[in-house]
Write a structure and sequence with these properties.
Chains A, B: It comes from Sphingomonas hengshuiensis. The structure is a homodimer. By secondary structure, chain A is α+β, with helices and mostly antiparallel strands. In chain A, 37% of the residues lie in helices and 29% in strands. Chain A is elongated and about 55 Å long. Chain B binds a DNA duplex through α3.
Chain lengths: 158, 158
DNA sequence: GTTGAAATTTACCCCAT
DNA sequence: ATGGGGTAAATTTCAAC
């Protein structure tokens, strides 16, 4: 993977596709001031470089029955690298865990977990997380409501 | 907005588009066992109903210079609804705050914040968050690494 | 850029209920 | 009559040259 160096047009392409991942290449090209073919070449290059990792529809979680979002703050007994990796490997196998971030400070990991309801969540928590080896403490907080959920990162408007 | 009732085909469409938001409608139609036109009608209906909220390219944050992800746990002095709304309105104006979830328990909000570096983050934190009215306490944790970051929710395979 | 191939979109028809 | 799927044709987009 090569070093990524982007000019202004690349940045605008990234911003536009983050905002609307289904924008047609023709519209994208117009917006950034190119004709379609070079614009598409840039998009493909950005994908190959890994600047664009994929495209995803943003679903309403409730539409698929996931009415509960929970944040779990996990502390481990051992923070040896192999133990950290083992925990990450564990959460990778739990589909309801959508995100796993390793943090500094007393809390080792924060997980974002979705579940249909409180019962399902408690089931996942007690059978898969709190009983896992090396897990010292799990503190969970239910999401009451989400007021902001933007994708990715801010993009400079130009 | 009407009540959402989905059959198996709708669920499969949602799952496939969450996984690949740029899948062509003809491929999508093949995968779910329809021809293109009725498939597209279903997609448009799902968009209108709000089951699909949008499509986004997943960018590598580092590509745009955002090398730091931070979680901020915020406690307010007053949890009156108007004060909660006021805080949500404040964070809505800060582009680096990508997510804002209201939680139960002592922590009122968890924010996901991105920044180019620690200096920029401290600047945002001290000028926009900790000094805001009604903010009692902000505890921040830096992300060391992110081992899992899946979009949306699990989708039943069929 | 240009052009052939492919995808999208609209309109219309059919079938089932 | 209504709703969902299929067929066909026009337009747009894609991708190779």
């Amino acid at each position: 993977m090569e070093k990524m160096r982007f000019d202004d047009i690349d940045v605008r392409i990234l911003g536009l596709l983050q905002d609307n991942g289904r924008m047609t290449n023709v519209e994208l090209a117009e917006r950034v001031g190119l004709t379609a073919p070079p614009c598409l070449r840039r998009v493909r290059a950005l994908e190959l470089q890994g600047a664009i990792n994929g495209y995803h529809a943003a679903l309403d979680p409730g539409a698929l029955g996931y009415n509960l979002t929970v944040f779990a703050m996990v502390s481990l007994k051992s923070q040896a690298e192999s133990d950290l990796r083992a925990f990450e490997a564990l959460v990778a196998t739990i589909p309801e865990v959508r995100e796993c971030h390793m943090l500094n400070g007393e809390i080792d990991f924060i997980l974002k977990i979705v579940a249909p309801d409180l019962q399902s969540f408690q089931q996942i928590l007690t059978t898969k997380l709190t009983t896992a080896p090396n897990v010292e403490h799990v503190k969970t907080s239910l999401t009451i409501r989400t007021s902001k959920a933007l994708p990715g990162v801010p993009v400079p408007e130009m």
